[in-house]
């Protein structure tokens, strides 16, 4: 029988809980609960004022009922009343109810805040803690408004008890997360940092968490915490176990505090001060040394606690990325863990080594473990461990081991868990492209991917192989031959048919000389798969067929017969029917010259970034992808180090086979772009520049060239007709709520392939926030097109610089110190930033700056990295 | 001098703590992040589904949505802490164990029923050791001393 303590009995509650547990059915339970609810309701409404004990008991029962999963719509008032009791047990239940059943009734909120206020001012540490815990648990805006300024005071006051300080620190942390604007840290910063020196390690623990969070937003303000943290950490790791009795856990000194201190240090770069830096290095070495010592206990708690500190120390070493000896030692330690009998440790070692792989100091050391990792891939029984092994292989891959790693990953793919196949496919595709010296290997790898895991080969992957084959003359023949052979397999994946159809359609002529792959053989091979394929693939095959007609006149009749068949001409699918009809007609009426022109070989794709990497990042989520080295190979094979991963190929602009061709030749088929959405895709790019392409789709390109002087602006809008057919009834207008925009009328016709210019005169009469919208309409083929584009006319375009000396500038800047004059907006970047790249960019920019102010700003910025 | 603020991603630490039995009944749910009641229910079910299929050959860590769960089974109960992906797995694994040892001491060989009948006290224990999504106190001695003191109050 569970012990019911003497302090608060609440027998009634225990009986009620027993009753519920004894209910044989859900209905019985509900019946019992309803009975109790009715009882409590009547007690609460009753004439007799309830005593504290009863109130507490009933509120507790209500809480229990809620936690069972039933809605409670009363009791809040009574719970709030409990706050004003002077008995701990009653207050505790009241606070608990409020924290669990948060209510947004403003009267209640006022009363709750009142109760909290009284408890905070009570000087009773138990009550103060109850109040602080409530604020920390609820963390509402109203509470922040009421108490955010009071709590720092409690935290640093000399007579505050240790346990209250602990709670105050974390309470402040919560408020800072939910309502950062209401927490005035400024004057408290130094005192909060000083808490790291407190003699109560619980206070230090809480303070470290608080400082870590605050330091992430304002690292400069909390810079002084670094030396204190190092000193503290040093004292802990070198302490004899007798020193930290209360905080020694299975013979490990203050493991959680150590981990937190190491985390705090990860908010900062390696210390500049040499003495401090060496003290920290000593600390880290001590931690690494301890890992090698014989364990003080056989218990897993001991090794987990010790290794928790070790892994965090390694994380710091990796973060600093500045001490080669430490990095190599870390790598070796992790290498040992790779073969530990505990799965947890093998998992963590694989994970940690992944980050080590991207450091230039330890990359080679990591590679030495390749065989072990490959073995892990084959033998680990927990799929998440195998996944870490895959990640690590990917991270350690470079030119020297790419072929082997890709081969291992392909072999693993054959039996891999379905849930991780797509990720492995993407990774293999990226590696194959990145490290291909010989593109035949690349083509083989992708075809293997399709063969092994065709379902998981996404469009980005096979589009990419097509792009690469199109762009590289030297691999076209090989691709045609290989794809031809692969298609011979009795059951091949539809993605292979797509790739094969496309490549043979373009380059089938390169293997047509051999009788085993003559045009007719190729056609029959493709057509044998036709009926097994889905509509989009069949559409692609039809395009391949018309290309064959162009390439191989000898099979023209055969193909025409196929196109002519009822199953094509009367196909239920509109696209297929259309293609069959139109290709057939084309083949009949077009002369060989015209046909050759229409079905000319695909031109090389322009240099673009691979969308495969973008897809992988999206899959993995933030923070999980190891950094690959920056230079990316473009489609044309040259190393292109200026592209960042953020410019990715928009999937919609990847050409599907022949679709562009169709638009050019046949007039009715284009799908009109979305009529009602205002495009603002490229809008942000124009904040700092005035010229460029603001909008583009398959039919139309709109470019801008603008100039501004004082409050006037002139914008030249260039409309480019990307098709070979006229745009008719062309009209454009600008709508603006705040600016005066005058536009000269435009010609209603834009010839195919031609560009037309329109001048817009813009006048800014007062400050504004909405940008003007350009509305365009025209007829293409038979269809009416409607496009709306946000024009990049922003307030900053009308700004004018003022010259002044740098002292004057900084003087004025400092004057803007009042709270309403300062605004800081903190937002998450859409794309992860590679600090090295950013640092380099800033350094480059600095060398371009003429004035000392900009140079100094660049310096400051690069220091932050 | 003007300061330039570089904002590193700010991660919440603990998202929630759950104690569930094998059948899926929740014995404790402590949330450190805002969730609707529906979302909470869904999370509880998902967590249960994810941890109960694992056995000794698996690690004590599971990727879960954008987070991860560190868990350990004690007899018929699963203790799960949901933390951020960059958090220290072993630190939280032992954080759980530390918490369980305190419960064990406080309830004198704790069993599931203790957590049911004294559910309101379990919250007190939790709040002593974890607060605002962070570890608050790790000394078992200190925590137990405090709990016993609170126990004696009216």
TrEMBL record, chain A:
Q: Which GO terms describe its biological process?
A: clathrin-dependent endocytosis; intracellular protein transport
Q: Where is this region: Disordered?
A: 616-641
One Pfam family assigned to this protein is Alpha_adaptinC2
What are the residue boundaries of the Clathrin adaptor alpha/beta/gamma-adaptin appendage Ig-like subdomain domain, all occurrences included?
684-792
What are the record keywords, sorted? Coated pit, Endocytosis, Membrane, Protein transport, Transport
Subcellular localization(s) per the UniProt record = Membrane, Coated pit
Under InterPro entries, the record lists: Adaptor_Complx_Large_Subunit, AP2_complex_asu, ARM-like, ARM-type_fold, Clathrin/coatomer_adapt-like_N, Clathrin_a-adaptin_app_sub_C, Clathrin_a/b/g-adaptin_app_Ig, Clathrin_app_Ig-like_sf
For a 1,2-diacyl-sn-glycero-3-phospho-(1D-myo-inositol-3,4,5-trisphosphate), which residues are the binding ones? Answer: 11-12, 43, 53, 57-61
One GO cellular component term, please give it. Answer: AP-2 adaptor complex
Membrane topology value: Peripheral membrane protein
Q: What does this protein do?
A: Component of the adaptor protein complex 2 (AP-2). Adaptor protein complexes function in protein transport via transport vesicles in different membrane traffic pathways. Adaptor protein complexes are vesicle coat components and appear to be involved in cargo selection and vesicle formation. AP-2 is involved in clathrin-dependent endocytosis in which cargo proteins are incorporated into vesicles surrounded by clathrin (clathrin-coated vesicles, CCVs) which are destined for fusion with the early endosome.
Q: How does it assemble?
A: Adaptor protein complex 2 (AP-2) is a heterotetramer composed of two large adaptins (alpha-type subunit AP2A1 or AP2A2 and beta-type subunit AP2B1), a medium adaptin (mu-type subunit AP2M1) and a small adaptin (sigma-type subunit AP2S1).
Q: Which family does it belong to?
A: Belongs to the adaptor complexes large subunit family.
**Record protein name field:** AP-2 complex subunit alpha
Question: Top-down, what is the taxonomic lineage of the species of origin?
Answer: Eukaryota, Metazoa, Chordata, Craniata, Vertebrata
From TrEMBL, chain B:
What's one GO BP annotation on this UniProt entry? clathrin-dependent endocytosis
**Membrane listed as a keyword:** yes
GO terms of molecular function: clathrin adaptor activity
Segment forming the signal sequence:
1-19
- Mind telling me which SUPFAM superfamilies this protein's record contains? SNARE-like
Q: Does the keyword Signal apply?
A: yes
Major site of localization recorded for this protein? membrane
Localization, per the record, is: Cell membrane; Membrane, Coated pit
| Keyword terms of this UniProt record | Cell membrane, Coated pit, Endocytosis, Membrane, Protein transport, Signal, Transport
Could you state one GO cellular component term attached to this entry?
AP-2 adaptor complex
Q: How does it sit in the membrane?
A: Peripheral membrane protein
Q: Which residues form the AP complex mu/sigma subunit domain?
A: 13-153
Query: What InterPro entries is this protein classified in?
Result: AP_complex_ssu, AP_mu_sigma_su, APS2, Clathrin_sm-chain_CS, Longin-like_dom_sf
Q: How does it assemble?
A: Adaptor protein complex 2 (AP-2) is a heterotetramer composed of two large adaptins (alpha-type subunit AP2A1 or AP2A2 and beta-type subunit AP2B1), a medium adaptin (mu-type subunit AP2M1) and a small adaptin (sigma-type subunit AP2S1). Interacts with CCDC32; the interaction is direct and mediates association of CCDC32 with adaptor protein complex 2 (AP-2).
Q: Which family does it belong to?
A: Belongs to the adaptor complexes small subunit family.
What protein am I looking at? AP complex subunit sigma
Query: Which species is listed as the source?
Result: Haplochromis burtoni
